[in-house]
């Protein structure tokens, strides 16, 4: 068995580039079979460098010719080895002219220049530019680009690149050209071009300064009725960054282009953001409320990168979270501000934390755990992770919690004043925040350097005579690969104290606490163990700990059910109200899982149902918030509570609980269904989407007792829905209900759904996804689905919609006792590896926590992992994840 790792790259080995690039002139003769790329680089020796040679990266390129200062370089004039071209003995100033060939149509990796549905696109982050031309392809080399595009005019009427269009015209032979100039220096990963048959929705938009900018959303002709929401989101993003951070769009033109074949969500290329169609196209017929919200947040995310990422970029890829963590934080705040209300903000916060806990905490506890600023990697593509993005955003959020909102703004201002136009490190961001606020954030660096989720244990004691209440917090963090010992983190713990009625007490505490919102203090835990004493506490309080999830930690505190019920009913912090409901549910799910595993009788106490009823019936609460409380922790979350996971028992336990809730609250659920209908014209706003969310959750519960009447309810909703949210929810509820009637209705609806939407690829993705996730879908059914004419592994969205949803979101089937899920997984990884290594490596992650299962299951998983490890022509991407998964 091969477990050897390909060459790793270490952060400590960073050296400055030997040559800097001042200008890049790059010309393309675009052709799907063979595209000729002619590049002219003006370069200057970097006085800070120790390396003498010119060092260029190049991958999957044919080098036609190479000239230095006008002279042709023969093979004796340079070396080319392992994707690195080196030129020794160069003068201090050079002009390099490079001619290369690439084959876009054959490029299924979707990195570099590739073809999607007959059109040309590029994707350069992280290291794709080297598949276009030889170049020092590293983010600390920033240059000014001029781009000349030449292509067939009929097939590719639209020619786009970064910056401003400076010239265009006919070439006479049926071909035309366009010349683009980007006025800003940028790293190569932000380069982009599009040559395509597309149309756009465009608009002139006035900035607060009065300057007018041209905004465009480019899509295929049939999709022009699906661009409005992306355009609205873009305008909101521009306005928000002006208002919250004083950051203005620095270009006269800003373009968004949608492409159907794309490895990730979207890409922030300067002035030319390229998006997965999934995060652009929406109308009520094809997109759900969740899609609408995702589009707003991804459009915001990419737009915000213009300052956090592009104007100030990363010195090297170890600093990836410098731009990603900060930009996710900004997009989260943007989405929250767009909703506006306090409870709307809380809903957004809860959704973000749910993702963090379910996916990032799992990553931090597995073999791929890495710090927010990693120390090494084999393939950088494998480090676009929830740790870099979501935990990175939490780390930025903690800074804001520690220095306050205004202090955070001051820190941002200083960051841009110091580093505009530079490629910098995570430490530079932290230093700007510390200096602007005169705060010592030295210990805070450990959030960047240490992997793993800290566990914070709270203990309290009340002294009725002295009227003091003490909270003792202690922290530990488990070992992660390569990091056995951890030092204490600097953890902001926001707390409140509730009286017996659930009202916030006025807080008095002298032990290093800073003021949060009224009734909340932020305790700064910096030691392994620390006690905070509150005075003038007139009664035994109930502590509300880690309000608004003030730090990405697991907080342990021995709450009684009664205390949790009080928090759920009254806490002024809506996040902790929700949190109380999850604690109530989780402790029961853990017990039920144990009972299911031991074949014991499953029971649920009425107190839990009563607590849920209280929330469901509370009309003063937003429907969106009630939906979150009524949604039970996912099977994946339950799995995280166990050292040995039994997926079947977890499924049985959760299904049992769903059934009991459905039975206990049947009348109330029916009532919630009826009172939250949204008969008016579709709008994705928070209020309407919240109602749909609660109504559709109610429907899914009602179908736990799938008799004639509830099946009819779902079928009627499916048939008459005037939007995709309701249609998909009805189909999903039918697919996941277990009665004969529901199964029949589901299969009929699936057929109808396919027929109605067969020309909408994003909806067909939903069709595959719902089936991949459905409990009824076993491996045999998966294999059948893969033979459907609409299925292909080549399109990442399609592969994800079926394969990933099965492997990641259908645990009871994926972990079938016979190992059939694992064998299936290995086949798909191997097939994807040959097509698209990035996507393949993501799928490998579905088995990275194999050590958490029972011995028999481990054996079967190990076989599957070894099958992949031993297969031929493994990409670096897949090798890295497989070998790290197998490593002890
Ligand atoms: N930087 C992009 C973002 O966060 C994501 C990204 C990185 C990406 N590498 C990519 C997108 C490769 C597509 C393909 O917005
Ligand atoms: Zn990003």
TrEMBL record:
Residues in Aminopeptidase N-like N-terminal domain copies: 34-190
Catalytic activity entry: Release of an N-terminal amino acid, Xaa-|-Yaa- from a peptide, amide or arylamide. Xaa is preferably Ala, but may be most amino acids including Pro (slow action). When a terminal hydrophobic residue is followed by a prolyl residue, the two may be released as an intact Xaa-Pro dipeptide
Keyword Hydrolase attached: yes
Record domain Peptidase M1 alanyl aminopeptidase Ig-like fold: where: 452-558
Taxonomic superkingdom: Bacteria
InterPro entries: Aminopeptidase_N-like_N (IPR045357), Aminopeptidase_N-like_N_sf (IPR042097), PepN_Ig-like_sf (IPR038438), Peptidase_M1 (IPR001930), Peptidase_M1_dom (IPR014782), Peptidase_M1_pepN (IPR012779), Peptidase_M1_pepN_C (IPR024601), Peptidase_M1_pepN_C_sf (IPR037144)
The keyword Zinc is assigned to this record: yes
SUPFAM superfamilies tied to this protein: Leukotriene A4 hydrolase N-terminal domain, Metalloproteases ('zincins'), catalytic domain
Cofactor: Zn(2+)
EC number, UniProt record: 3.4.11.2
PANTHER family named in the record: PUROMYCIN-SENSITIVE AMINOPEPTIDASE (PTHR46322:SF1)
Family, as annotated: Belongs to the peptidase M1 family.
NCBIfam families, sorted: pepN_proteo
Protein name: Aminopeptidase N
Lineage start: Bacteria, Pseudomonadati, Pseudomonadota, Betaproteobacteria, Burkholderiales
